[in-house]
Amino acid sequence: MSLLRACAFSKCLDRRSLFETCCRLCASRGNGAVRRISETPFQLQRRNVSSVIPKTEDGKKRVLEQSLLLDVLEARIHQLQTDIVLDVQHANVQFVKAPSSGRGVLSRKSPKSTPQEKSDIPKSGQTADKGAFKSQPSRWIEKITEEKKNKLKKQQHLKQKIQNKVKEKPTAKSTGSKSSSMSPGTSHKTISMTAKKIKVPSIKKSQVRKKVSDEIRAAISSKVSAMAAVEVNAATAEVAAAPHKAPNKKQKDSKKKVSSGDHQKQTVTDAQDTAKELAEVEELERRLNQQVGQWMSPSNPECLEQTVQDTARENIQLRIHSYLEACVFAGEIERAHCFLLSQHRAVSRRKSLNTAMYNIMMRVWAKKGTLNQIGRMFILLEEAGLKPNAGSYCAALECMGRTPDCSPAIVRRCLNKMEEDGLSVDDVFSQCVFQKDERDMVLKAVRIVQPDYQPSFSGSTDQSLPTLVQDFYVQRAKHQYPKLDFTQEELKECFNRQLNMEQTCTVTIDSVEAAKTVTPHMAKMRELLADQRAQWQKILLQALRESKMILANTNTKDYKLNLYPHLCLLEDREYVDIMIQSVANLPPSGESLKILARDLGNRVYTKYCVRQKHQNQMVEKLGNIYNAYTDLLAKDTKVYNVFPREQWCKLETEQSSGPSLLGGERCWPYIVTLELGIYMVDLMVKNLKINSDILNPAFDRKLIPVLYHMYTFRSTRQIGFIKPHPILTQMQQEAMETKLTFDSYVMPMLCPPIPWTSVKFGAYLLTPAKLMRTVEGATQHEVLLEKCQNLHAVLDSLNQLGNCAWRINKPLLDIIISIFNDKGSDKLDIPPPMSEAPKIPHFNSHDPTYTASEKAHMKREVINAKKKCSEMHSLRMDALYKLSIANHMRDEIFWFPHNMDFRGRTYPCPPYFNHLGSDVTRALLVFAEGKPLGSKGLDWLKIHLVNLTGLKKRSSLQGRLEYADTIMEDILDSADNPLNGMKWWMNADEPWQALACCMEIANAVRSPDPTKFISHFPVHQDGSCNGLQHYAALGRDVIGATSVNLMPCEVPQDVYSGVAQQVEEFRAQDAKKGLKVAQVLEGFINRKVVKQTVMTVVYGVTRYGGRLQIEKRLKEIDEFPKEHVWDASHYLVRLVFNSLKEMFTGTREIQDWLTESARLISKSGHTVEWVTPLGLPIIQPYHRTRSKVVKSTMQLLSLQISHDTKERPDTVKQKNAFPPNFIHSLDSTHMMLTALYCSSASLTFVSVHDCFWTHALTVDTMNKVCREQFVALHSQPILQELSTFLLRKYCTGLPLDAKNKKYQEYRRLLLLLAKVPQTGDFDLQRVKESTYFFS
Question: Any idea which residues carry the catalytic annotation?
């Protein structure tokens, strides 16, 4: 091998070959393009590596001969790589792919080439031969060429022979011939031929595939027919016929002599079963193939391979795209241009480019009016094998519009070329995102040749709406959409305030701790911190500028990706402000490098997006459209019968001139965000210093780092950590600063959110927001959403939730802040201050007076104390943020924009303060709009209060109402004297919400007329174990439906008590048999012990997880013997699962069917996907975890990525998660339907998953809608539609080139998905009469 390398090194010295290579390049340039000759690693080595070897004539000759030998060897390797061996034995022709050498040379071949063209494609060795060695042809090369020609002739002859055979006898050989006894489960491609075994070169798979498939179908069909004949004539059939009809795996056994009548009967029975199964498989495939044209089959290996290749390039494409955009935005046009050219010139890197990247540069040249540069970009596109898209032609037309006196011939030629590529002018206006005046320039260019042209926008039609909501969108005569309690001028003012907040990207508010008296020491610490921050700003500013200069001058020759453009997007001072803010927010215990870097990178990205929208002149247009949009919402305007989404789209169409509101910016790749953040952290760690004697002048003065980069362990993994110096922590704690700075998106919005009109546009005015929350870096959800044709119902429901206006319950807020600023309260969920934290013990580990056990004990105490302090600080800061935001908004009306997770469950976008929070935050929120209580409103307030206490769960509504009347004295005392009275409210399950309800009831009953009392209080209606409700409805399970209140009953059924009772019966039986653990558990089994496990089993909790839950409950019982906790938890979790299986038989069948389906789907190499009844596509992002190392100057950061679509699915996660995720998608669908119909009835409606909120006046109306939509949802054939979707997605097309085992798995999946669990006799309409379905 070393000799070959030496030859390769010497080869580069051949001047003649170098000269000829240059000639080839020059000739290529002469043809109008710069094409680089494809080279193998051998040739690259010869071309790139130089050494000093004497250039004698003998040396040249030897080098030439050895190089020829290398070319011959390489050509032979490539030839073997492309060969596919065709084994023909009896009736089987087996395509066996030759092992690859792993060099990936074949990836450049065109998939559409014919066999003749394929054989003529020059290998890498031949490319070199035709260039450098053209003057000295090799006899070895000639020999290989001749051999290939002969092989091609044989191949064509064999192909013709195969076709003739198939045409003559397509099915005859499968009935009587021994050679046709192959099982339909075989994964080889079988073609009837002679018994002679031969080997031939590859036949193009795409040309033979159809014939092979047809023959397999014929073989299956004939086999089924033959076996059906056996079934009819079983009594008289000869035993010798059985081998011809048995599966392949029984061929050897079928040759043996059968001497027993029983054995003969068994053989016939097996044949009948096999025939039945084969007939079932064939029938399923026939039905599937009738509709296969509408679906792309993932079973196609070529499709799979292409998908994997596309995904593999996706990350690098995103990175290149963000780099080019950053360069252009920062004004680094030359850097962007040179980088794109450097990527284009290298064939290996050119594959990572796509049309959008070339379009970025085209837009730049369009602004400059340089049409010739755009022409060059079109040439580069053609060289790269890419097609121009609407964006490409948009840039060309824009350039023509900017060119004075542009020739009509040029515009016409451009439009003709567009038409040849299947694009119209309307496509340009509908598909492209315009900036500044681009749209007007394009329109100007088009009107040069079409003076009367007007862009036409195809309005969205409701034809593709899901069945569930077709009538809802078509029949709108009775719809009454709610108005907001604001005038149009008030809403416009709200918009301006929100716009100002988002433009600054941050908001600074007063802390609720500000009420404390400022001591001289506090003032001194605040002054010291302010001085330090001023110094740090100067230091960081200088360090940032110096590091940018270094980055700007690196990689100027090869223009590799670096962070320089991303450091030029904002003003230098803005980067410094972001860094200083992160130091101020750093907890005393520190933060992991990954999280800190991510937050820094995201802050830069957010500011960049806002600046980009300003630069694109979008803000003014946004204001005009929003001002017109307020006409729909304001109370002093006419009533519309359209949704906010529809009105916004209409207004945007009417004001189409100017920039597009949907910004063209793309999310940065997660790796870029991290690298940028790590770069900023590195600057802070290296440059931020503080004097060591700043707090104690007795110490020696020296500069010490403010931040430390250290390592710590999380579980078994070592992670990088950034920790503040104790001096900084002490200064911050003693300063007790009164200001908190947040990112603008953390705050609730001061105006109604922009309605979601598409996957990429909605929610905040300028701040970027995602419609679907995903794991950092996951893109598969966004790809699916963008392919969706109609998400109107989903978007409208999100908009309805976001349009609900809120305000703060000020009396309650004052009470909570007073407790917070005192010493907190663990009972009331108000975290105490750090002054109440346990003192961390100090001891000298080297003190000889301590024994080893004492040292170990002290170390444990230190660790526990530090952990407790860290937890207390986290809880305290969380409460401080929430209360400070609430206090800042105490006199405001505000809104929560909503988005959803990948299952469709909805969430408010602001992370800290929202109605999905704890009991404290929920109690602080009331509706901004008030409604009179009406005749039943006060009763609903009382019932709601009893529900919040957790008492009377088994009582009827009337019983709860009567109980509320009996405790009216306690209710009024709680409202009047919450902290000094009897404090009845403190014992409720949800104490703060209970107190808020007490206050509302007190105000209502003391009003002159309670029916006219204006109430802002939200009343909740909660589903009764909602997951089991959906399972019971899916399976029409009468017993299960009764247990979870789908059936009307006099009193609510408590499923948890029912399970506890069933478990107790099993325990009593075992105790009688003498089982010790059953005897120990006597008297300890109750509702509380089993509740959590019953609640979560429907969401996929395993027996292991259930055991941990029960173990925790048993430990909470002081009287239970602790030595039996382990055995008792093991025993009880088994009884709970068995009880659920008996009570919910249909539920377990459906859950098992979903689990097994997901297991087989993921084993076949696919992730589980489905579509909700509202048309929302869902994909489970669980793949095998891989590690990605991010290199930086600080450390190597290892990322555990479990969402990479290049990796195989994680079978365990896929199967365990499918049942709960599917049920979550159903409960979100039910909530969205309820939201839509409540909105059309002019109700205020919000939800916390399966807990629905509205005014006391409209509870009855909401209950009616809720039940009707649950019935409507489950009246759809949900499981049948899921089965059909999964069959089409994963079972369309027989896996022709798979092995027997693969086919067996495919057949099992096919039969399983087709066999939908049977349903019971429960009548869904009874749900409408059930009082306690939601209560």
Answer: 1022, 1091, 1250
